[in-house]
């Protein structure tokens, strides 16, 4: 019997010749996405924010899979820094064919305890950052006549959650961005999103008491946290040749936390 935690392997060579930029790549989820894209043959731009040691380690791991890599550091909320990082990456690897907007910010705070600076921090990373990176990548995709984008939202965009009003708002906004952009740049550029449920990553760990895990997973079908390795194959599918009819869609990778 197959373990339901074992994701399907990416088809080797499916993405050979493509260059993929993954933002927030050195985190657990970003790294898992990078590994799956690399197994499918994509060269990887490993984006990070002042985490060069971890980025270089990930690049080495990906290169062992037979692909080319480059690491770049930039604050996704800084237009000029992102533009410089993209120029460097594309000079070294070639034009960006695939963009995975994975970088994000999540903070547990009740609305009545949230000040404007804290609210803006979440919006800046989770929405402005996606806009900036996408805005700088899309023109090249349109010029070349092809591109694929996957935005990482969350099941909380649909469910809401106590103590996460800002995060839920930003991730819901990202879905509107995905749908509108899909209509604007499709079918030349294929734009989709995924909405994971709670994933066992360091971002979740500070909150993950047994009570917290139970609360977040009790109404899901699988009744547990997801694993980073269970997300990568869906991203690879959405940017691969098997998903030509997916435009402006959201895949619910939440173990049945949101149905329908």
UniProtKB/TrEMBL annotation:
Pfam families: adh_short_C2 (PF13561). SMART domains: PKS_KR. Residues 18-202 form the Ketoreductase domain. InterPro entries: KR_dom (IPR057326), NAD(P)-bd_dom_sf (IPR036291), Sc_DH/Rdtase_CS (IPR020904), SDR (IPR050259), SDR_fam (IPR002347). SUPFAM superfamilies: NAD(P)-binding Rossmann-fold domains. It comes from the Bacteria. Coiled coil: none annotated. Belongs to the short-chain dehydrogenases/reductases (SDR) family. This is SDR family oxidoreductase. It comes from Occultella glacieicola.
């Amino acid at each position: 019997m197959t373990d339901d935690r074992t994701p399907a392997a990416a088809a080797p060579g499916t993405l050979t010749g493509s260059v993929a930029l993954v933002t927030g790549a050195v985190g657990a989820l970003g790294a898992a996405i990078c590994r799956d894209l690399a197994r499918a043959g994509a060269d990887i731009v490993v984006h990070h924010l002042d985490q060069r040691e971890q980025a270089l380690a990930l690049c080495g791991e990906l290169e062992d899979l037979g692909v080319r890599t480059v690491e770049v550091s930039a604050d996704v909320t800084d237009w000029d820094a992102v533009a410089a990082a993209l120029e460097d990456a594309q000079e070294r690897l070639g034009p960006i064919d695939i963009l995975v907007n994975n970088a994000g910010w999540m903070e547990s705070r009740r609305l009545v305890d949230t000040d404007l600076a804290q609210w803006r921090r979440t919006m800046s990373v989770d929405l402005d950052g996606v806009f900036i990176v996408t805005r700088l990548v899309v023109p090249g995709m349109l010029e070349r006549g092809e591109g694929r984008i996957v935005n990482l939202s969350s099941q909380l965009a649909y469910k809401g959650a106590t103590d996460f009003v800002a995060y839920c708002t930003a991730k819901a906004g990202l879905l509107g961005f995905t749908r509108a952009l899909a209509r604007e740049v499709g079918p030349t550029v294929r734009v989709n999103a995924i909405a994971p449920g709670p994933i066992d990553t360091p971002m979740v760990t500070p909150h993950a008491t047994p009570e917290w895990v139970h609360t977040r997973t009790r109404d899901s079908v699988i009744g547990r946290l997801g694993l980073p390795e269970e997300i990568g194959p869906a991203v690879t599918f959405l940017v691969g040749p098997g998903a030509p009819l997916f435009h402006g869609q959201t895949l619910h990778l939440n173990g049945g936390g949101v149905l329908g």
